[in-house]
Amino acid sequence: MTTSSPLHDLKTLVLSFHSIIAIETVEEDRAAKLIRAAANELGLTVFDWSVTQGLVRLPATQAIHGTADPLGLVKHIEDLTVKALFHLKDFAQYLDNPAVARKFREVAQGFARNLSTIVLTSPTLSLPSNIEHKVVHFDLQLPTRDEIRQGIQPVIQSLMAQRNIEYQLSNDEFDELVNALTGMTLNQARQIIAYAALVDGKLGPDDVSKVIERKAQIIRDGGLLEYFPAAANRYELGGFNNLKQWLARARLGFSPEARALNLHPPRGIFIVGVQGCGKSLAAKAIAREWHLPLLKLDAGRLFDKYIGESEKNFRKAIAMAESMAPAVLWIDEIEKAMPVRSSGTQDGGVSQRLFGAFLTWLQEKQQPVFVVATANDLSNTPPELLRKGRFDEIFFVDLPSEAERRAIFTIHLELHKQSPDDFDLDRLTAAAEGFSGAEIEQAVIASLYRSLHRKRPLDTSVILQELSETVPLSISRREDVVRLREAARGRFVSVH
């Protein structure tokens, strides 16, 4: 399958007589390079403008007199007869001036009859309504692996020549480094490479982990996604045999053999079930088993009080996830993240638009991003999510079976440096009937604290006492659990 490039897409917009193109990006230099490349291939002149320099006809460096003033700029552009791309940096803010906005619209109307195009760039773009309807927005995605590869090579060569940096990467290790840099802007990638090399005077295999750590910090700073590096993922899943078998088959979708047969990577799975029974743990375990980075979408932070910002946040989160593909994207409690039933009118339709955008992306996405969506409450889950074809499979998670409870006890005892052989697992397993995996984990932890307080080793009796004093969710919310089981019966595949 072939995909278009940013250069091809920008040229197509210009050739389609779009007189105003808006690019919201922090990568101004990258946008400028793209604009110049498009103009070169289309045989158009390039003009560059900022309020500090005025209008410059490239490749000249001398600004045209009187064009630093925004109104003077648009008047000058209107008088030009040359067909060109006009790159206006941070110009949108001046369109609040009625005179500037009026003249700008007149210029744009004239450009609609030829190939001349105004390209607006800014880290944030907010346009007046009388301008917005004339604008086409161009989504400048984060740089591809090839762009990163080409972008960091001059930096490495400069460091080697001017700083005597030792280059100790094989071709495969360099590819790993490039993969680790995906999801960053070119400027971030260059800065991280330079810092990693200057710290110890070399660029080697150890720097891959430093890059991953820095990327995790950048993602956290962005606030929309939480990042779990593949190397740091140690989560294990007790039971879930049906799910594990399905995943073993689905994993082949990422293989070269599958691509040779024109098979697409798996789209994702939807996991519904009793709270605390391992849905979230399953998402982490999938990424661990497949040796892929895990991204958790903090859906609550998508919503913004400003019109259009929530959708923009969603696009940013998806762009980040796709730039790191192949990866696992985990959306926890999706029925709360996109509550289209209850809040469609209360939030001005934001939830419905976000939900629609998510469904469209899920159906049409090209990058190998495996989505794991989880839900606790089917009554608030939009029926569109449960339709076959949205996800590759829908799984139901019930309370753990006897064998699974035993496995869960074993995992958590070993995790806290206890030997399972020292405990009566048969009695513990029987006493924990009706307990979720999370409740069993908490019982082990609480028992350890109880033993520490008593200054005695942990034994079976302490855990049994803790279990006897705990009211599990299957009892305290029995009606909800029964209703969920009834709704799932015969409709979804059991993970067990």
Mind explaining what this structure looks like?
It is a single chain. The chain has helices spanning 6-15, 28-42, 70-79, 98-111, 129-132, 145-163, 171-181, 186-200, 207-222, 241-250, 256-260, 279-290, 309-323, 334-337, 340-343, 350-364, 402-415, 425-431, 437-454, 460-468, 473-476, 478-488; strands at residues 20-24, 45-50, 54-57, 84-89, 117-122, 135-137, 166-167, 202-203, 225-228, 268-273, 294-297, 327-331, 369-375, 393-397, 493-494. Strand 2 (45-50) and strand 3 (54-57) form a beta hairpin. It is built from 22 helices and 15 strands. The chain has four domains: 6-137, P-loop containing nucleotide triphosphate hydrolases (Rossmann fold), CATH 3.40.50.300; 145-222, Helicase, Ruva Protein, domain 3 (Orthogonal Bundle), CATH 1.10.8; 232-397, Rossmann fold; 402-476, Helicase, Ruva Protein, domain 3 (Orthogonal Bundle). The model has no long low-confidence stretch (mean pLDDT 89).
Short description:
The chain is of the alpha/beta class. The chain has helices spanning 6-15, 28-42, 70-79, 98-111, 129-132, 145-163, 171-181, 186-200, 207-222, 241-250, 256-260, 279-290, 309-323, 334-337, 340-343, 350-364, 402-415, 425-431, 437-454, 460-468, 473-476, 478-488; strands spanning 20-24, 45-50, 54-57, 84-89, 117-122, 135-137, 166-167, 202-203, 225-228, 268-273, 294-297, 327-331, 369-375, 393-397, 493-494.
